[in-house]
Design goal:
heterodimer; A: alpha/beta; 6-stranded mixed β-sheet; about 25% strand; B: about 280 residues; alpha/beta; 11 helices; globular
């Protein structure tokens, strides 16, 4: 397994900065099926990680474990100093610091865009409606759709809905953003607008873990690319090394397939 | 084959008097498959109408629930006085060269529900032995009172110039005239020259899919005509001037209504400027 860590975030980590995410010897099963096996992963503050791998490799499950949408049966996950595997109130604390964006947007269809964005800050952070709306408009401007604030999700395109989902997550001012295949439900013409929004976040220093097959994004944005297969981290490396000199045969096969697929 | 170096010339059309600009339709696939499945074709039909389109092309492959969607679209297009074309994704002849009569009947039935006088299909696996089924096809169209417009698709079997010429020659020899949907962009996918195709097939063309193209590493993508690397003006000049045009390149943007309106206006502008100018041999 390649484990060369050369990005600024890793240099920071080596200099003694505490990882913002620590995943130690995590195993997870769905019934008798082991979906994660022996996962160890440290993420430095500000680090941008892309997780890729074939369908069923456990990559979505892994990032869902980071805000405890999935429970692990073995090992430890510590996020921003809080041990998630201890359960209880820790979960709520962590979820306030970890934003998540899903493949299918998951906006509330009966609420306007603005109402979608202010719901969690008002309920979880205790903000007033005016405060929450001010923050929501700030982030809707950030994702370049403030004019859609009073529309409903069904009136927006997929790309716009996904940008709203990102704004909604940002309204909680999270320290970490998790993206679970954020562009895979979009038409090709809409992928760029979402990736551009994510690139903007990355440029601002947000800690990001992104499950995606957008290898162009991985190449240009990620500090580290992780390849998973059969529930294990098979290989991880900075993108230039990952794409130029993949060490594992499974990684090479995957890259061959996906790069060929995207080229056609 | 890069079409920029294509040697074909458009037919030497005689100088003509200016004629009315063609109706501008929107193939609803232009809005993106995921988007259309999310909102439904009825929603995009209404948007197309609001943007000033003269009509829409409804796509079988994007219907989620034909039983409810087709009547709803029919009602909207009827009320708005819009044109409508039904596009079936099922090929007319199967891989063995047999006419897929059930597919044809499904297409005709859907077109009837929609109130569409035109049905668009591709020839699929039409081969020499298929010619005996052309009479059956023609009978179905006559009984169904539907105009079939055969499209050049992106497959080697049903999208090359040779395949389409063979097909139309065979049909014409039997006294069966079938119109054509001329997709300007698809020729690039099959490595054909669109100008040569326009020159050869113009007499059959009854409907045009406007689609610009750009070459990306190892693939073609559809783009607006204004962004196209293909000689689209020459192709349009080579085709009949009064047949409907449909936008079949991606329409996307934060203000989709404005984007759609802009693209319709662009095509109207192109059509008007071409109608003012006499057709000259290239």
């Amino acid at each position: 397994m390649t484990d060369t860590l050369q990005s600024p975030a890793h240099i920071l980590a080596e200099a003694g900065t505490e990882p913002i995410i620590r995943i130690e010897a995590v195993d997870k099963w769905y019934g008798k099926f082991q979906v994660l096996t022996g996962i160890n992963l440290n993420v430095a503050p500000g680090e941008r990680i892309v997780v890729c791998g074939p369908s069923g490799s456990g990559k979505s499950t892994l990032i869902r474990c980071i805000n405890r949408l999935e429970v692990v049966q073995k090992g430890r996950i510590v996020v921003d100093g809080i041990d998630l595997t201890a359960g209880g109130k820790n979960v709520d604390s962590v979820r306030q610091e970890v934003g998540m964006v899903f493949q299918q947007f998951n906006l509330f269809p009966h609420l306007t865009i603005l109402q979608n964005c202010i719901l969690a800050p008002m309920r979880s952070r205790g903000l007033s409606k005016d405060e929450a709306e001010a923050i929501a408009m700030k982030y809707l401007k950030r994702v370049r759709i403030p004019e859609q604030a009073n529309k409903y999700p069904s009136q927006l395109s997929g790309g716009q809905q996904q940008r709203v989902a990102i704004a909604r997550a940002l309204c909680m001012t999270p320290k970490i953003m998790l993206f679970d295949e954020p562009t895979s439900a979009l038409d090709p013409e809409m992928v760029k607008e979402v990736l551009d929004t994510m690139i903007g976040l990355a440029d601002d220093g947000m800690t990001m873990l992104c499950v995606t097959h957008e290898m162009g994004f991985a190449r240009s944005v990620a500090d580290r690319v992780i390849f998973m297969a059969e529930g294990k981290i098979i290989e991880q490396a900075p993108p230039e090394q990952f794409f130029s000199h993949p060490q594992n045969e499974k990684t090479r096969n995957f890259l061959g397939q996906i790069l060929n697929q995207h080229a056609h | 084959m890069p079409t920029e170096v294509c040697n074909a010339t458009a037919p030497a059309s005689p100088v003509t008097t200016p004629c009315a600009a063609p109706p501008i339709l929107i193939s609803l696939s232009a809005f993106g498959a995921a988007e259309v499945r999310r909102h439904g074709q009825h929603w995009f039909t209404q948007l197309s109408h609001a943007a000033g389109a003269d009509g829409v092309e409804v796509r079988s492959e994007l219907l989620q629930d034909a039983v409810t969607e087709l009547p709803a679209i029919a009602q909207t297009v009827r009320a708005a006085g819009m044109r409508v074309v039904y596009s079936s994704a099922e090929p007319l002849w199967d891989a063995s060269g047999a006419l897929d009569l059930p597919a044809l009947k499904r297409g005709i039935a859907a077109a009837h529900t929609l109130g569409a006088p035109r049905l668009k299909m591709a020839i699929g696996g039409f081969i020499a032995s298929s010619q005996r089924t052309l009479t059956t096809l023609d009978d179905c169209l006559q009984i169904g009172k539907i105009e079939l417009v055969i499209e050049n698709d992106q497959t080697p079997a049903a999208g090359t110039l040779a395949a389409l010429q063979d097909f139309f020659d065979t049909a014409n020899d039997q006294g069966i005239f079938l119109g054509m949907t001329f997709d300007m962009g698809n020729w690039h996918w099959t490595g054909e020259c669109p100008l040569q195709a326009a020159s050869a097939l113009a007499p059959q063309v009854r409907y045009v899919h406007c689609k610009g193209v750009q070459r990306q590493p190892q693939r073609w993508i559809a783009v607006p005509l204004a962004d196209s690397s293909a000689p689209w003006r020459a192709v349009l000049r080579a085709l009949p001037a009064d047949v409907p045009w449909a936008i079949e390149y991606p329409l996307a943007g934060d203000n989709l209504l404005a984007v759609t309106r802009h693209e319709i206006d662009q095509l109207r502008h192109i059509a008007t400027s071409m109608a003012r100018r006499p057709h000259l041999p290239l």
